[in-house]
């Protein structure tokens, strides 16, 4: 349950951070749009102020020369030689922060002409026009205008200065004329209400996403906690019931064992021994179920001891084969030279693993099944391979093999008794011993199960 809480907290934190990052990007996008809009509005105000200075009360002289704009490439060398006035080059345009298009260059040339005619830029008029333009575009802003020289020294300011901080803007320094002698720049401060208004929808959506996700996580955690409590209660009840089954079974086993030892007739003694074996098998199933429960709780630890592996496997097989008197299996045990005679392993778990796998090889096969157990060393691991020529496992069922209570059903094969706990318990016990269980199988050919145990931990 603690892990679920940690995961939920991490998910919520990631969600909040992602929403914050999203809002931050929206803020930057809005800021960029505002910056672009202010640049355009300020340039528009400069052009309006320049237009006012161009208005003259003097009547127009009909004999004054007309201004004609032509490309230098369209002129002959003789015409270019007759040109009078200043010449400006591309590097000068870049150094003086001029825009390299004809319309803006023409505007700056007009600024030069107005300055030469003793009509310089009027900061107060520009400030008034700029504020009016901001108001016309529904921007309730506070601004001031600064005029500086080529060395960025302030020459004149109009309006109350303020420090640049959150959501305060400054336009690009724009030249007044082509000579780069003076520059004009606007500083604008927008109210916080404008920020909220622009980002209100995004902020609302972000809050709704966070609240909805937090509610879903809370509901999910509450459901998990409730299911966990129910499962825990069920496990305790099952654990108690399974544990209580062992006492009467042990008593029954001891009673039958005593009666069998006193029985003189071979047939009756054989029947009693079969009953003993069946009870012993049921006790093994109960112990496997208890092992599964203890493994889930992490309460059971392995107890290693030396095992003479060949005789251990043979004894386990002989105990199992008695349960199938009608079958005539061919059993073979092979050991590679590098596989030791003695290994360190948990005796109880090893016996349960071998018992389950050998019994499956006998149970899910025909009467003349061949069973081969091979002991090999692979990559510093002990590998115990149990191969049979039984019915095999269909490919569709192989994905679910090892799940608790899952049993392979084949319509063309006789049904076999069982509970679907054998392989799941083998997998868990192999894992408890530091190893694993793998398999290969093909329908109507047979199966091979591999118990892999690390040699250094065996």
Automatic annotation (TrEMBL):
Transmembrane segments annotated in the record for this chain: 6-24, 199-221
Superkingdom field: Bacteria
This protein's UniProt keywords: Kinase, Membrane, Phosphoprotein, Transferase, Transmembrane, Transmembrane helix, Two-component regulatory system
Any GO CC annotation of this UniProt entry: plasma membrane
Enzyme Commission no: 2.7.13.3
Domain annotation Histidine kinase: ranges: 240-457
Transferase in keyword set: yes
InterPro entries: BphY/WalK/GraS-like (IPR050351), HATPase_C_sf (IPR036890), HATPase_dom (IPR003594), His_kinase_dom (IPR005467), HisK_dim/P_dom (IPR003661), HisK_dim/P_sf (IPR036097), Sig_transdc_His_kin-like_C (IPR004358)
EC main group: transferase
Gene3D superfamilies registered for this protein in UniProt: 1.10.287.130, Histidine kinase-like ATPase, C-terminal domain
Keyword Calcium: no
Catalysed transformations (reactions): ATP + protein L-histidine = ADP + protein N-phospho-L-histidine
GO process terms (BP): cellular response to phosphate starvation
One Gene Ontology MF term: phosphoprotein phosphatase activity
PANTHER family listed in its UniProt record: PHOSPHATE REGULON SENSOR PROTEIN PHOR (PTHR45453:SF1)
Annotated protein name in UniProt: histidine kinase
